[in-house]
Design a protein that fits this description.
It contains 14 helices and 10 strands.
Length: about 475
């Protein structure tokens, strides 16, 4: 009984069993990864295509709505010929896009969406909510309630709901004064395309299963014939290796060379490599420590060079190279339709006068002081020194949301510092500040940068008119 169990244990530990199992498991894992990757790629592409369609539909819907008549739409609705014509247009629009499930126009407020148009009856099976009624927030949009009430864009929502697999897109509208009035919204059903994707993946999975089965059977047979046999010879040889003395290591090499495994496949080449490795191992071990130290020294030097390139030495903010890297990052967001940022351009006033009059040492202190004001105001945004007297802040998050207030704060702070006449000239920090936000007319970061630079220049002109070019 003990001998039988030992044979079972030895068989289980044998490479002849483990290698086919590993080969089979690896192949199945690859198949699963391929199927999952293809599925998610299809889903991502499907959401992208439906989002593009939804954007087109909401633009067409928005074109028909007079933002100055929203109150009339709510109060008079079906009594207005224009209101009925808009609904008729929405109905025709739905026929042109068979995937549309719902179309509606809401004004979002604290307790939900105030209905202006509700085309919930596009399929003819039911009536939408009456104009003027309140539609409570769906669970998915509760976290975005504040943004919706301010007329800000919210992410596209796609999920399986009680109505099917839906994609929801909302576009805010504003009146001529820039006040938020409503959102035009569309829900697309993705059930049909989703099922087509699933059916394709099932078919692909079946084909892969058949092909993989054939490959596995053939591969395991070839593996047992050409791999595990020679490996067993090498294994038995290495079990008798000794490494205590130079003589032992030479004997190991002789034993391996006596196997004389021909170089007909990977195992033969592995045998040749293994034999060569035994011969060279002493040399490599001797030089290993030196090579390790050299690698660590080189890596440290590269890290230091990279850090120096990304950071301005004088002010310790981002360098021009770092700004260009950030710009490339934002360009990708623009291409994906996810960009939301503003650029602040800061140009230090009278730096040449300070340098010429008091020296470059005080000029450097003047630059550092101006930089500190910029960093203090825009605490949540990266700041870059892109020229001798020029700084750029890329506003994101909290600084972006409060950008107008932050701009005013920056200008006021610089003006207060400039008017402190009891301080040294290089301590009366002064700079012209301009800002521009990414908008519909912008196609890249450079467009926003140029408008921010122009705004800064206009501010500098006004500053010079009032205070002159020098102190």
């Amino acid at each position: 009984m003990d001998g039988f169990m030992e044979n079972i244990e030895k068989k289980w530990k044998s490479l002849s069993l483990k290698l086919p199992i590993l080969y089979t498991a690896s192949t199945l894992l690859v198949v699963v990864i391929v199927l999952v990757s293809v599925y998610f790629q299809f889903e991502k592409q499907m959401i992208r295509e439906f989002t593009q369609m939804a954007q087109g539909v909401t633009r067409l819907m928005a074109r028909e709505i007079d933002t100055e008549k929203i109150d009339d739409y709510i109060e008079r609705n079906f009594k207005m010929k224009e209101y009925r014509e808009i609904r008729a247009y929405f109905t025709e629009l739905e026929k042109s896009y068979p995937g549309i499930e719902y179309m509606y126009v809401y004004h979002f407020q604290e307790d939900g969406g105030l209905v202006i148009f509700d085309m919930d009856d596009l399929d003819g099976e039911g009536q939408g909510d009456e104009p003027g009624t309140i539609y409570p927030y769906d669970k998915a949009y509760v976290p975005y309630k504040e943004k919706l009430m301010k007329g800000q864009y919210v992410p596209v929502q796609s999920d399986v709901t009680q109505y099917g697999y839906l994609l929801t897109y909302m576009q805010p509208l504003f009146d001529e004064k820039g006040n938020y009035v409503c959102h035009v919204c569309v829900d697309f059903s993705m059930d049909r395309m989703h099922m087509e994707n699933v059916e394709f993946l099932l078919t692909l999975g079946l084909v892969l299963a058949i092909v993989v089965t054939i490959i596995l059977v053939a591969g395991i047979r070839a593996m047992r014939k050409g791999i595990t046999g020679p490996l067993n010879h090498i294994s038995k040889c290495t079990e008798s290796f000794k490494y205590d003395t130079e003589e032992d290591r030479l004997k190991n090499i002789q034993m391996m060379e006596q196997l004389d495994i021909p170089d007909r496949n990977e195992i033969g080449r592995l045998y040749q490599i293994f034999t060569s490795t035994l011969k060279e191992s002493h040399y490599y071990m001797t030089n290993f420590s030196k090579a390790k130290n050299d690698i660590q020294t080189t890596a440290a030097a590269l890290d230091q060079m990279s850090e120096s390139a990304m950071r301005d030495v004088l002010t310790h903010v981002g360098s021009k190279f770092a700004y260009e890297a950030k710009a490339k990052e934002i360009e990708e967001e623009i291409e994906n339709g996810e960009a939301k940022f503003a650029i602040v351009m800061v140009d230090v006033n009278n730096l040449k006068y300070v340098n010429d009059t008091f020296g470059h040492k005080e000029g450097d202190r003047y630059i550092q002081g101006c930089c500190k004001i910029v960093c203090d105001v825009y605490k949540h945004s990266p700041v870059f020194r892109v020229g001798g007297d020029e700084f750029v802040a890329v506003l994101r998050g909290e600084d972006y949301d409060n950008r107008e207030a932050k701009l005013a704060q920056a200008r006021v702070t610089f003006m207060e510092a400039f008017l402190q006449k009891n301080k040294e000239t290089w301590e009366r920090y002064s700079a012209s500040v301009g800002m521009a936000s990414f908008g519909e007319g912008d196609t890249n970061v450079e467009d926003v940068f140029k408008r921010a630079d122009a705004a800064m220049y206009d501010y500098k002109v006004e500053f010079k008119k009032k205070y002159g070019s020098y102190r």
